[in-house]
Specification:
The complex is a heterodimer of chains A (191) and B (152). Chain A has 2 helices and 7 strands, in the order E-E-E-H-E-E-E-E-H. Chain A has 191 residues and is an alpha+beta fold. Chain B has a 4-stranded antiparallel β-sheet with strand order 1-6-7-8, with no helix packed on it. In chain B, strands 2-5 form a two-stranded antiparallel sheet. In chain B, strands 3-4 form a two-stranded antiparallel sheet. Classes of the chains: A alpha+beta (191), B mainly beta (152). Chains A and B meet through strand 6, strand 7 and helix 2 of A and strand 1, strand 2 and strand 6 of B.
């Protein structure tokens, strides 16, 4: 028979988030932002085996914390709100709106996330401090660039100024031909 | 004619070196590794870290000095490989009439065919510890897609 323990006074977990950002228009259609973004989470939910055998010699069941007093050799799933995590980051981004020929959004993040386990404790329940470390999803540097560039080809552009017209007529011809074929088959189907 | 794209790059995510055999602990927990050197120095070719920087499982099991003890290697103390992917598209819209158009697109996912490896094998009792046996989540080989869209 296993048991589950829930504390009578469970603390409510919470997250405090904060950020400080400065945004500037560097040039027409070009904006730049630099920000510090962070959060702190407290009293995060956790569960652990409160009657897990303490590493040591002998029969492992005899090393369970509740064995000497009660002879209890089963697991106890103990709920707790004893974990915390924090996130700190420097976020830099630049955005160029589409004006002449291109637009882009570039983002760079330098960050660190620390926690005690991504789901629950990964190691022994009796050494909470040794669980502390970077989160499994923690990536120190992260960069993303999205772009749209209007290439200088086509009517009104530098190269292949007449391309669009020629290709369009070719396409219209192709559509007429496809339409003709369809018409031809439908006519013959009726014969 | 438009050249559009999304290019992403980020450094690796962390992982923990472990022994999948915890007999020496005589308990239920996962046995954390005993670190004796720098796992990031002299990394063997093709490996994610140097497994020789940790006490081998045979020693852990047979040397009484390691009995009933957790290792000293920190949780998530190692880093996996970096990730890079460029998704680029070349597109052109042909106007047929004022209201109808044909949009032709050539989409390339992972243009440079960059191999985005997943985390290396972190189990020090495994024969292929440190080697890469998987791709990172969402990693893909170069994939091209052509599309022709008729808008009206």
């Amino acid at each position: 028979m296993s048991a589950t323990g829930i504390p009578l006074n469970r603390k409510t977990g919470y997250v405090e988030m904060y950020n400080l950002a400065v945004q500037r228009e560097l040039a027409k259609n070009l904006s730049f932002q630099i920000a510090y973004v962070g959060n702190q989470a407290r009293h995060l939910f956790d569960f652990f085996n409160a009657n897990a055998p303490v590493p040591g010699p002998g029969l492992s069941n005899n090393n369970r914390p509740l064995f000497p007093g009660f002879g209890y050799t089963q697991d106890i799933t103990a709920f707790a709100n004893d974990l915390s995590s924090n996130y700190n980051s420097l976020q830099v981004s630049a955005e160029k709106r589409l004006s002449t020929a291109y637009s882009f959004t570039a983002q760079y993040t330098y960050s660190k996330t620390l926690n005690f386990g991504d789901n629950s404790r990964e190691f022994g329940p009796f050494q909470l401090q040794t669980q502390h470390g970077p989160a499994g999803f923690d990536r120190t540097h992260s960069f993303a660039l999205g772009h749209v560039i209007e290439l200088p080809v086509g009517p009104g552009r530098k190269f292949f100024t007449n391309m669009n017209k020629a290709e369009t007529s070719l396409l219209v011809d192709a559509i007429h031909w496809a339409d003709h074929c369809l018409h031809w088959t439908s006519v013959h189907a009726h014969l | 004619m438009q050249f559009t794209g999304l290019t992403t790059a980020y450094t690796g995510r962390p992982f923990t070196p472990i022994y999948s055999n915890n007999t020496s602990l005589n308990s239920d927990f996962t046995l954390r590794a005993f670190q004796i050197g720098d796992p990031q120095a002299n990394v063997p070719r093709g490996a994610g870290f140097r497994a020789a920087a940790y006490v081998p499982i045979v020693t852990v099991l047979n040397n009484p000095a390691f009995a009933f003890r957790e290792g000293n290697a920190g949780r998530n103390s190692l880093r996996g490989p970096n990730f890079f992917e460029a998704d680029w598209e070349l597109g052109k819209t042909f106007m047929i009439t004022e209201r109808q158009s044909l949009a032709l697109a050539w989409q390339n996912f992972n243009v440079f065919n960059n191999v985005n490896r997943g985390l290396p094998v972190n189990d020090l009792t495994s024969s292929n510890v440190g080697s890469f046996t998987s791709l990172e989540t969402f990693a893909r080989p170069r994939t091209m897609q052509f599309s022709l869209r008729y808008k009206f």
